[in-house]
Amino acid sequence: METRKNIKVIRKKKRLRKSILLLLLFSLILLSFSTYAVAQYFSGKNQTGKGIIKKNYDFNGQKDSRGRINILLVGVDSRGGKGTSNSDSMIIAQYDPKQNKAKIISLMRDMYTPIPGYDENKKINASYLLGGPELLRETIKRNFNIDLEYYILVDFKGFENAIDAIAPNGIEIDVEKAMSKEIGVSLQKGLHNLNGKELLGYSRFRKDAESDFGRIRRQQQVIKAVSDEVISANGIAKAPKLLGTIQPYIQTNISKMDSLSLIKEFMFFDTKDIDTMTVPVKGSFTEDRLQDKYGTFILRTDFEMNAEAIREFLDK
Fold first, then answer.
1. Does residue 92 sit in helix, strand or coil?
2. Is 58 helix (H, G, I), strand (E, B) or coil?
3. Could you tell me the pTM of the whole model?
4. Where along the chain do its domains lie?
5. Is-contact 133 72, C-beta < 8 A?
6. Using CA atoms, how far apart are residues 179 and 189, in angstroms rounded to an integer?
7. Tens place of pLDDT for every residue, the chain, 316 residues?
8. 165 and 245 in contact (C-beta within 8 Å)?
9. 294-298 long-range CB contacts below 8 Å, 24 or more apart?
């Protein structure tokens, strides 16, 4: 009887020692990763420049009634010491945690749009110049009837640095034609690994017959390619350095807690589930030019038709 008790005690002690060893091992791994993550974060941060000029923006974003997360992504260009300018790219990104699906709506900047507080229509990208992300949010809400909870401003230089941090050997893109005009780089047709500057130039090119339509298509292609790289095992390992690299070049109203929640959701996200849409939709606009000294190109848009198309796209 006494022997059985001794055996049980010995087994219990062995299990306890094993549990302690496992806990210590886990703690060491966690500590090592934390040290690595902090080192990588500051490594990325030390490689950046001054970054975007950050301002205090009001943003009266509204939560989606169905629990989806709606984010306004705005691409801005502060290179060369430029001040506030028209937004270069405007994207509505929606993530549905219940379905684990993401959707992207690219807004063409040449839409001639009513802007709250102004009597005359203007190009939609002028709303950012006139009133920052909040006026752009109000303009989108008024014309397309969609609430946006968060905004993220991303400076072009930050995009370049982020790509070089996450993919030092470049992102693989099938360049459909030679491109060079007004993009700061020269690209040749074919399959290439593009660095940050080249990838930005590829996504901004619009000097061909497709104009802004081609630019939007390439932007969506780039978003998917970059998402694949970020969510890969290689990308996750480099996430701390990526955050340190891009942090000076972004501004957002997403809190740190909400950021951690979003990162957790996207850790196991399949980028094949990203659906894309371009606004205005086919058959809902006409091309025109203003009678000004520049003969400014605009898209006269049926906003009611596009608001309905957006609703159907997000609800499907």
1. strand
2. coil
3. 0.77
4. 69-315
5. yes
6. 8
7. 555 555 555 566 556 555 545 554 444 443 443 333 334 444 444 555 555 667 888 999 999 988 999 999 998 876 555 555 678 889 999 988 888 888 999 999 999 999 999 989 999 999 999 999 999 999 999 999 999 999 988 888 778 888 887 788 999 999 999 999 989 999 999 999 999 999 999 999 988 888 888 998 999 899 888 888 776 656 556 555 666 667 777 888 988 767 656 655 655 556 666 899 999 999 999 999 998 888 999 999 999 999 999 999 999 8
8. yes
9. 296/123, 297/110, 298/110, 298/111, 298/112, 298/123
d(CA 120, CA 227): 39
Q: What is the DSSP string of 196-248?
A: HHHHHHHHH---STTTHHHHHHHHHHHHHHHHHHHHSHHHHHTHHHHHHHHGG
Query: How many other C-beta atoms can be found within 10 angstroms of the C-beta atom of residue 217?
Result: 16
* CATH code for the structural domain at 69-315: 3.40.630.190
Amino acid at 202: Y
Amino acid found at 294: Y
Q: Give Cα 232 to chain centroid, integer Å.
A: 16
